[in-house]
Amino acid sequence: MNVKDLYRATAIMENYEEDVQENDTLNIPLNIIDEEDNQRKSEYHEIQKWINCEDENIRELIYIKEKLKNKKQVKVYTDGSLETTLTEKIMGFGWVIPEVKDYERLTFRGNIKNFPSSTRAELMAIFTALIVMPKRSKVIIYTDSACAIQNIKIITKQINTRKIWTENKNPVILQMINDIVQERRLKIICHKVKAHSGDKYNEIADSLAKIPGFIEGITNNIFEGTTISLNYNNITDRSFIPIWKFTPIETPVKDAIKEINRLKLMLNFKYQERFKYIMTNTKCREIDWDLTFKTKHPSKITSDITNKEDSNKRSFALKLLCEELPTLSKRYIHKPNLYSSSSCILCEKLVEEDNMHVFTCKRKGQIDPIKNLTNKFKEILIEKIKKEEPGIDIKIIKKVVSEVDILNYTYEKDYTLSKNYSDLSFFDVIKGFIPNILVTKVKKICRNKKAKANKIIIDVLEEFQKILKQIWKERCDKVIEWEIKNGITNKDKRTRQIRNDKRTKIQIDKTSNIKEGNLHISKMMEKINFQRKQKQKEEDLEFFTNEIFLNTFTYKGNNLYKIKIFSDGDMAISS
User: Fold this and answer.
1) Residue 229 contacts by C-beta under 8 Å, 6 or more apart in sequence?
2) How far is the C-alpha of 7 from the C-alpha of 302, rounded, in Å?
3) Which Enzyme Commission number(s) are on file for it (predicted)?
4) Which pTM does this prediction carry?
5) Is residue 124 part of a domain?
6) Confidence band (pLDDT; 50, 70, 90) for 380?
7) What total number of domains does the chain contain?
8) For residue 182, is it within any domain?
9) pLDDT per residue as tens digits for the range 166-220
10) Which of 213, 231, 232, 233 is CA-nearest to residue 223?
11) Residue 146 falls within a domain, yes or no?
12) How far apart are CA 467 and CA 560, in angstroms?
């Protein structure tokens, strides 16, 4: 039989079934039809009370509910999955009910979005299964998720539901599970099933939970129309539900506020002009952002006792990262009346003294200082690893460390040109950025103990920055001597710039041939352009804060590279 004949046969069968249904309906008394319609409407609204989904999903649940209406005890196998596409994370869930009488398997599947986690998907599977359970029945749930079992136990033992909202993640779905259990007086018993152990029904639930057509991070339309959301408006035990952008927050409110504010601060930080050279290319992917910021604040910032030494360390580390050390290039911008140029006073050549030049300056010598700094960094790293892992041979440690290309000095490089490199360089390590490759290699030596590897790297950066600070101190001493010889005092440096009657700063006109009218127009255009960029920045920050908060649940520093900043200041999600 060819394909056309198959389609024709299918159409004939469908038409026949429709005719039979119409004939059957004509033979049924009208009062019975009305009763059935009312019953179906009631069941339809009963399911809609808990979830929002397509009519097809509701019909499936009504059918399963009808099959189970006389059951006093029901077994159900549930499972959830978490899949990542190019643009978002999708949670799939599914469950199967193995019937004892005729071994008919009743199945259901769906997917949910926002606050992705496998536990949330598992809880959604349990919740949708409870919707079809008969009143006063005993429900035995088989799942391979220990977290889901723990959450269900919290509900069954919790007298005061307030703690669900203050101490647990996924409070909305947990509250709704609690409500349906109380309303239908269900008795729930959970059993842990070992994942992929060959359990027949657990494997069926696992296959139902997976997103169909999930190929190379792209989903096809097989799973379309099965997205299910919670109808949280029917929660009766709460006076209000915390909402973010029309979505109920599935995390304690305090944690959510901290997370949202931290995201805004981090995005605002990376939006700065000074970091554009990193954010606009692949360098951003090579940085361990979490560890980078931990090295800036290794101790608790909320300590009751003020520690001056700790404060100085943080100040130097952040100035180094943000290129805010008071070098001559900065002094020249702020005090052009005191400093005739921004050139380094320790060099024979007229080279601008910026943040990095302080550590690359040869001091009228021939040896590249970066070579010495690279060797010192490796020595400190090997020493710290050996201290934490005394049982590992020093030759093995040196071999693994040598595999980090950034730490291998090859030739003298220009810092300005290095900004255009596609990969990180040792200049970035001096600033305080932690390369992913360094973390990976240290973890390898530490037998994949992440906490120990992080501690080693934090200690190494702290020790290395002591060396950098000593170089900075020596440079400052020589600059102070030069300033005294040239009659520049601390009082001069602290004196505010003279202001005119209009309370505006008097700027030195370096381009005196520019007409006043043109200068005014230029300033106005600059102001308008700045306001446009600020408005766009605020919109971008709001949008991406929302995207990351809803779609990653907990913030991870390495998600920063997903937001790409273009040279004109616009943002976009990079693949």
Assistant:
1) 51, 52, 53, 112, 113
2) 72
3) 3.1.26.4
4) 0.60
5) yes
6) very high
7) 1
8) yes
9) 777 888 888 888 888 888 888 888 888 887 777 788 888 888 887 665 443 444 4
10) 213
11) yes
12) 30
